[in-house]
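Entry, Tuesday afternoon. Goal for today is a structural model of the target with magnesium ion bound, before we commit to ordering more compound. Inputs were pasted exactly as handed over by J.K., no edits. I checked the ligand SMILES twice against the vendor sheet because last time a stereocentre got dropped in transcription.
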Amino acid sequence: MTKITPHIIIEGSVKYELGKIQGNQIMYDFDKMLIYLNAKGKLLFGQKFKLYDDDRDILFKLCNYFIKDEANCRKLDIDIYKGILLTGPVGCGKTTLMKLLRHIVPHQRPYKMIPTRNIVFGFNHIGYKVIEDYGNDQFFCFDDLGVEPLGRHYGKDCNVMGEVLLSRHDLFLNSKEKTHATTNLNAQELEERYGNRVRSRMRELFNLVAFAKGSVDKRV
Ligand SMILES: Nc1ncnc2c1ncn2[C@@H]1O[C@H](COP(=O)(O)OP(=O)(O)OP(=O)(O)O)[C@@H](O)[C@H]1O
Ligand SMILES: [Mg+2]
């Protein structure tokens, strides 16, 4: 039988061990995960990528969530069965982190990152079938939730992402399909955008993980 070692990741000629096997469990080591994430970030996003000390708390939460460390997640008030709603100011690195973190768990089912604007453009072009397309058993991360335009197909307006979130919530209840998202909006703004029915379901669908309000814009 081959040993399953998802905590050992090879990038080019470098081997990263994110932890150790103990019994039939992987004991992940946070500092080793950070070393890997820093290196992988540079490979994905270029040499200027680096992990920021200020983001350590966020990284700790996300790492524990992705590796499904139940004890730490309980302490952090994170439910490993829900998805992640990563919020924070413009440019703080939400999209980047959601693209990066999935690489620490190559053995888990991947999620597709989809800009919400693209979903609306698809809707405007094709109509309600687009909403159905996201109500399937894949995992998604809806990027930049709340800033997409309203959908309009054959003269009919539609709050496309609101509808998509309702379908994802149904799926979550029936079969635990995961949905993640990134957003600049706070809870109140999300409610204004999608209404309280969607907002209430979002609480069930997502763990809220928030960057600090004053997080720097990494674009400048
Ligand atoms: N850790 C990092 N090190 C260096 N550059 C980074 C880092 N994180 C993000 N960046 C850069 O900063 C810019 C903004 O990052 P990103 O798009 O992830 O932010 P965001 O929070 O999703 O922004 P928005 O709210 O506009 O969607 C990008 O150009 C990205 O390459
Ligand atoms: Mg973004």
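Residues 22 and 28 are 10 Å apart (CA to CA).
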